[in-house]
Amino acid sequence: MTWLVVGLGNPGEKYAATRHNIGQMVIDELAHRHLVKFSTHKSRNDIAALKLDAGTHSVILAKSKSYMNETGGPIKALANFYSVEPANIIALHDELDIPFAAIRTKFAGGDNGHNGLKSMTSAFDGPDYYRVRLGIGRPMGQQDPADFVLKAFSKVEQKDLAEFIVRGADVVESLITKGLEATQSAFNS
After folding, report:
1. H helices present in the chain, as ranges
2. What distance in Å separates the CA atoms of residue 90 and residue 175, rounded to the nearest whole number?
3. Residue 53 pLDDT
């Protein structure tokens, strides 16, 4: 069975270390863990392929080279190329309404104002794909959430960031090999 695992974010060094790109950070951790390298795909994604669970699951890791609000088209093109149905897609994304470093998984649902999810839901004509919601918390005070997500993690957050990213990768592997319910029981905090 083939899975498409998508790290939502914005392209380029300017955005690489921002909260909005936490999904892509988890994708990089999965690639590092499985010793696979990214290559450019004609769908405007960088991709890497790996196997899980003694080869029973093929996994395509993807980082879109388009901006967050335009993610859907390139991801749909990649899904079509590999004949992956939406029910075998996992989107990893930042989530303002979850405390920093908390992780929640779910299947389908609304976009909660997240432009990457809006774009994917539009491209796939529905929300029927998995989400790994990576908590970044809400900004303090009057800071605009749109500005907050485009900033780097604070010094305090950076102390726990590596472990957060590793747990995000663990969640993806669990979701693919053990399913949603077991993953939620083990990781939803």
Report:
1. 13-16, 22-33, 72-81, 115-123, 145-148, 155-178, 180-187
2. 9
3. 86
Report the alpha-carbon distance of residue 76 to residue 74 in Å, rounded: 5
Domain of 26?
Answer: 2-187
20 is catalytic: yes
Q: How many domains does the chain have?
A: 1
User: Which residues, other chains included, contact 155 with Cβ-Cβ below 8 Å and sequence gap of 6+?
Assistant: none
What does the block give as tokens for 166? 């590793």
| Residue 80: partners with Cβ closer than 8 Å, 6 or more residues away | none
The answer to pTM > 0.85 is: yes
State the catalytic residue, choosing from 20, 41, 93, 114.
20
pLDDT tens digit sequence for 148-162: 999 999 999 999 999
**CATH number of the domain that 87 lies in?**
3.40.50.1470
Amino acid at 76: K
Three-state SS at 170: helix
107 vs 128: CA distance, rounded Å? 7
List, for residues 56-93, the tens digit of each pLDDT value: 999 999 999 999 999 999 999 999 999 999 999 999 99
Q: Is the pLDDT of residue 23 over 80?
A: yes
In angstroms, rounded to a whole number, what is the distance separating the alpha carbons of residues 124 and 183? 24
